[in-house]
Amino acid sequence: MEGLRDRTKQFALRIVRLYASLPVTTLAQILGKQLIRSGTSVAANFREASRARSSAEFISKLGIVEQELDETALWLELLEESGVFPKEKLAALRSEADELIRIVVASLRHSKSKESATVASAKRTE
Prior knowledge:
Elements: H1 2-20, H2 26-50, H3 55-81, H4 87-124
Helix pairs in contact: 1-2, 1-4, 2-3, 3-4
């Protein structure tokens, strides 16, 4: 968990650096503001998930992380496809976003199945 916490923070820092290097055009700034909001939210919500007080809270916060990662991937795609930023300079960041999404989705599935098993076990003992 600690490794993923650091990884999401590094991802957020890369988003901040990308935003700082965007061209000063209206389109770049509009897309960039959306990108920085969602990209930094990934780290903030993962940090909250890692401090969750219950499995339900963990699952909820991790769900937000998944949503923010997916939104960040969209803004990266739009920066590239609109020609605002070169594909080559976004490739590694897009790849990291995709990998983080896969990790978070797998973690969510595992946590949800574990939660379901716990609830089912509790009902059987009643």
